[in-house]
Amino acid sequence: MTRSRARSFDAAAAQYAASRPSYPAVLFDRIEEFAGRRLAGARVADVGAGTGIASGLLRERGAEVIAVEPGEAMAGEFHKALPKTPIVRGDGNALPLAEDSCDLITYAQAWQWTDTDRSVPEALRVLRPDGALAIWWNTTAFDVPWISEQHARIARHCGVEPRPSARPSDSGAIRLAGLTGLQVTRRQLPWSRTVSLDVHLANISSRSAFLVLDGAARRAFLADERERLAGMFPGEEVEESYVVDLLVALSP
User: Fold this and answer.
1) Got the DSSP string for 57-108?
2) DSSP single-letter state for residue 110
């Protein structure tokens, strides 16, 4: 199921590109701080690059980005958004990159699709001795009641266990990420964006747990959710709140 969910994004690549949230500027400030180097001029591999959301922001900071993406349709959307940025097909378990070739390797929303017994050694192989690995996720802002309640509804509908409202401790997060034994810094960065109700619904339905569901079941859930949220947000403008969970590991 994990592999099918990881590959499910290809079926909704355009929807993903149009609706998925970006990341706040402070995230890249913290990456520079914890990695001990500026992004400007850094050689960065953005792995699981998807449609290019993180790659574009890294380029705006002056990084020399090479993207790695396994999905054909996702790579196609990437080309549309960033036609001058090189992208190669592959994944984090077997990086198609030379040894000691990158200052920074990034995983935005993608680390969980790797086998850390393989992806950690691969990252260390590709990183230069003073390099860093940065992984992050936009996670649920459980302190916002309507978002927490929606998260529980989505989990029930998709037949998955809802994540606990308490995030793992620093040591627990490092262990779950497979980074035990490395020097790791973690930060949680709150931010928000305001989008139309249509974009919000497209965003939540682009998640992997939704994409593997029967289409009729997905449409029924979204219709119910639209009615519920239209009552909460009469102007049909939804403020989505996130907490970016960032871990930066230094190459030994």
Assistant:
1) HHHHTT-EEEEE---HHHHHHHHHH-TTS-EE--BTTB--S-TT-EEEEEEE
2) -
Q: H or E segment at 230?
A: helix 215-232
Total of domains in the chain: 1
| pLDDT per position as a tens digit, 217-231 | 888 989 999 999 999
How many Å apart are CA 92 and CA 98, to the nearest integer?
13
Give the separation between CA 74 and CA 225, rounded to whole angstroms. Answer: 27
Q: What is the torsional sign of CA 160, 165, 171, 174?
A: positive
- CB-CB contact of 137 with 245 (8 Å): yes
Residue 136 structural domain: 2-140+165-194+241-250
* pLDDT tens digit sequence for 41-78: 999 999 999 999 999 999 999 999 999 999 999 899 99
In a domain, 84, yes or no: yes
> For residue 5, is pLDDT > 90?
no
Of the candidates 185, 161, 151, the residue with the CA atom closest to the CA atom of residue 171: 185
pTM of the model: 0.90
Rounded distance between C-alpha atoms, residue 52 and residue 75, angstroms: 8
Q: Do the beta carbons of residue 1 and residue 205 sit within 8 Å?
A: no
Read off the CATH number of the domain in which 66 is found: 3.40.50.150
